[in-house]
Amino acid sequence: MSEYVSPKEAARLLGVSVDSLRRWEAAGKIKAIRTPSGQRRFDITSYVSPDKPDKTTKPISKKEKTTDDELTLRQIAKGIVEYAQQMQKSRLFPYPGALQLGVEKLQAICVMQNQPQPQGVPDFVTNWAQHPLRDWPIEIDCPDEWNDAQFIEEQKPSGFCIELDGSYIDETERIQREVMQEVFRKSVQDPDLYVKFRRLLISCPVITKGERDIKSVLELKSLQKVVQDSYEQAPDSYKKNGKFYCCGHCSGLMYRTADNQLKCENKHCANKKKPPFPFQCDKDDEVLWLKKGLRYFIHRPGCAELRIEERLKQLGLEVTLYPDCDKYDLHIVFPDNTVWAVDVKFWESAYNLAKKVEPIPKLPHQPYHEAFFVFADEISSYGDEYIQEFRANCPVKPKKSQVMFEGDFIKVVEKKLKTFQK
Q: How many CA atoms lie within 13 A of 336 on its CB side?
């Protein structure tokens, strides 16, 4: 008898990624149907193959060509991010060209499928963009994990939208290139310059102008301009009762929701249930916060990086942050001189992350023996499906033992350390 289940459940039962199921369906290796709302359901009893991938190995896959639908969604994401930046400056702008064109392409898809379409950009922004893709009345050819995502959350671009756009990544990479060039020139005088800079951004996502200027002069004078360019004025609309508040988990700036509640920009912090705290500032000083790209791609994963560093040092290990100006995130040396390299990631979409990731380079003076991709524990609820999706689409092709969440990695380290105690 047929047994139709959701993509995530089918992936779990068959020991593969959701993306592999899509390839099997396209190749006719497994049967699937669509629910009235457009969601896939796989018949797990229809797949019978003597060479079914083993759960411990990565399914063999070829890099798929990006679909036209995927390109349309990326264009929409770019337009939404641009529009949000315009609105934050409290200026009146027409809708960005990327957003208008993306919505027009979406309308064309609706016409082709004879389904209702968004009535222009305003309708898309206020309705479609605030619902998961699975609720849209059309079938979109994109990774299945995207079906649970939406473009706008709490009147802001979602994490998925930011990652899909990629412009913030470009901004972050630009700043990092500037910093790297400065660090290389100043490394003789201060080899730890890059680490100091990175620690500042992670530890102080919100800072007063006076404190920023003092730190940039006393601690990072050679990178003073880069430090100044990393921050911008905190929006007054984030204040509640005349005060700024910071997240009790990540220390990032809280914003006010429509019902006047405080909420962290990183939605995963809410699961930690730590109360916000007021940001202390002299009334004559100016409150600054990290620019968007740095908040998302430096501060968010950086919190996990510093947590892992602290825990490893508590275990007595030799740990170096961002070796050779950020070749990777953590360089760990065990008592037997075994070296591990770790890259810490914090992305909403495993698929989008996999498309961006690069091999972890080896240091010529102290190459590593094992390398790991470690995901921040804030997204550990995404579970094995996230890891499977990452491995299935990652051109680096890591082993299953090289990809895990933060808490699991610490357990692996502790297990290895026990071998030295015997």
A: 8
